[in-house]
Amino acid sequence: MKAHTHQSSLGYFKWAFIVTAVGLALGAWLGWQTTGTIGGMATVFFICTVLAVLEISLSFDNAIVNANKLKDMTPVWQHRFLTWGIIIAVFGMRIVFPLLIVVIAAKIGPIEAIVLAARQPEEYARIMHEAHLPIAAFGGTFLMMVGLTYFFDHEKDVHWIAFLERRMARYATIKGVEIAFVLILVLVFSSFLEGEAADSFVYSAIYGLLTFLAVEIVGGLLDASQETMSAAAKGGLGAFIYLEVLDASFSFDGVIGAFALTQNLFIIAIGLGIGAMYVRSMTIMLVEKGTLAEYRYLEHGAFYAILILSVIMYCQTLVHIPEVITGLGGAGLIGISLWSSIRYNRREKAEHADARALENV
Question: Which residues are listed as membrane-spanning (predicted)?
Fold first, then answer.
């Protein structure tokens, strides 16, 4: 993977730029086809741009977490994730997933769902919005477990918000502490909901928790079996499955939020697909440039952003929270963690310089 280290930062985004140009051209053509006016064409072009920006802002943390997992994967599996994994992420999550929701919720066939998306976008969007509560409970629970598992780790020795993270690392030896925390939150939030909504929330959250545990078990078993074959084969299929489910949980928010801007499934697919390509480029850049090792608190910022996103997803079952807040919150936290890392690096350099000056005296 280190072969491309000479590549400039912009070079990593070559494919993302190509997909952006093609996607926006497609969006403009779609606008012209559906409305037949320049105004309609410009509107669709603008919506595609906003969706792409929304997806990128929501996905900074996704790229950092991907890079964190990818750096331990074998080059073969890294390549598989960055090719097949991204195809699954773009097409599977941005196109197939919204269709599947409608297929399950409306109890209709996949072809009927596509026809519904094309001919009755309002009805399609209504079904998607009705499915929001269980999706938010499922995705929120999965992401919360991802975030908490990072902090509740007794081997973790680099702390950004030290007073909080040291305590979490200390309590990590208590078995199932993060599961207990999540279940308490599920009970608290479900108490604000009534009847069917409360049941749906609890069941979906438990499915989210079970999915996380199942992915961890499967990942552990697959990676352990590969390890027995060869120590170098660690981080293969298990890590791949984990990253795919993680990407799905991240994109829940973007896909549902996109329906607030447009009810056209094809415009949503273009906008979010463009965004997903930037996530891929960012992931490759972070892995190849060793950015995570260079900026020691960047991962912390990403995992805090995940925890906040999971709580926001829970809150969205009670009140509407604009996606702009979600995106800016995550990007802001990552920005602060990057600034803290730069400050730390400067301080270290200054201390090394002082130590050298003393040695030379």
Answer: 12-32, 38-60, 81-106, 131-152, 172-193, 205-224, 231-250, 256-280, 301-319, 325-342
